[in-house]
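Interim report to the steering committee. The following record documents the input for Phosphate starvation protein PhoH (486 residues).
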Amino acid sequence: MPATAKTKTKVTTSAAAKRSKATKKTGCKLFVLDTNVLMHDPTSLFRFEEHDLFVPMMTLEELDNNKKGTTELARNTRQASRMLDEIVSSAPDDIVAGIALEGPSRNMASGHLFLQTEAINVVLPAALPTARGDNQILAVVMHLAEHHAEREVILVSKDINMRIKARALGLAAQDYFNDKVLEDSDLLYTGTRELPADFWESHGRGMESWKEESHTYYRLTGPLAPDMLINEFVYEPEGDNPLQARVKEANGSSILLETLVDYSHHKNNVWGITARNREQNFALNLLMNPDIDFVTLLGQAGTGKTLLTLAAGLTQVLESKRYAEIIMTRVTVSVGEDIGFLPGTEEEKMTPWMGALEDNLDVLNGTAGEGGDWGRAATRDLIRNRIKIKSLNFMRGRTFLNKFLIIDEAQNLTPKQMKTLITRAGPGTKVVCMGNIAQIDTPYLTEGSSGLTFVVDRFKGWAHSGHVTLQRGERSRLADHAADVL
């Protein structure tokens, strides 16, 4: 890559000239990676297809400063360093001219990787002190943009302020989009579909229907059938006996609908809990279905995500004995200031983070019967013995067999963390992820790049997973009003 020193100018300029010819033909871009991109996704080195990458020396320095520790970021940093070492070691003589990524990436990328090999001296505005790492990376981007006017030079950063500063200097900058599922969270799959008024007229021709056990089945064809996904819920908004059903099969032009268990009726209560609205009924049908291994629930505060999940878990652990125990975990990201180290065992350390669990157990314990104070205390002890609280930090390498695994506040997980957790599931285990993507506390995560958004999008249409976005709050009129106006 070109540099300011005269001794290297001929070599690097010729290398750039060769790439420039290709650039004019292919429109190949040059992406400069900020440190946080590699810390967020170490495989980002292979995610830019035919385009070239440039890694500034300050990026390498910041990777070195963040490699120690047992956090997910530290692990990602070490992995990024190992991948860079593997790439550079594969072609040490091509560092200046650019290392082809096709081999190291196993054909995932066809561009070249360039490392900063010379000092770059660019005069930055006085308001940007050169001692700061971000500003040194901006200086590198400015230098490359000046010396490569024939191609597009773009800074890639997860840091919003870094991108703003780059654009203020007239530089192109963008977020890392590879693991971003969508730009607008309103476009996220909800798991439900309202049927039009003419649905039966347009889909009823040649309809087959039959009853089996407590369900009614409808095999239909029509214009909406190709768009429907397996385990998507469909409903009629009005009528004397409006249809609520699940898409059990979807084969291109035909679908098979299965009517639902009505969990709003007290005879079908789950640990004393009944569905208060349509979406809660959909959620309970997923949570209680043994053929569904993976459930995602989205919704704002008070929609009943935790209560419904715990009720379904307790019923299937203590009554039907489908699962051995409930395991509950969540990411420990503070909303306010960190309160410091917590004493005790793993479960005792996690207890302050599990306020939602305790609150909902109080509700569920009150529905467990009329045994008086002693009976409720005994029931509470029984429940607590079958619920284990685990920290995310100790999940690697584990395999959960016949467990009901609940991942709370999943919106604060990255896609990689989500993969780590879900792949812990062994035979007979059900995984439930729940959260509110409007309440993300993890730095650099957005509604579009959250691990929860990621799995909702990637798992839709799989025969053993289901998703519901809960719409209506059932906590209190105060909580509902606050969610709407604040």
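The chain is about 35% helix and 20% strand. The committee is asked to note this result when reviewing the revised timeline.
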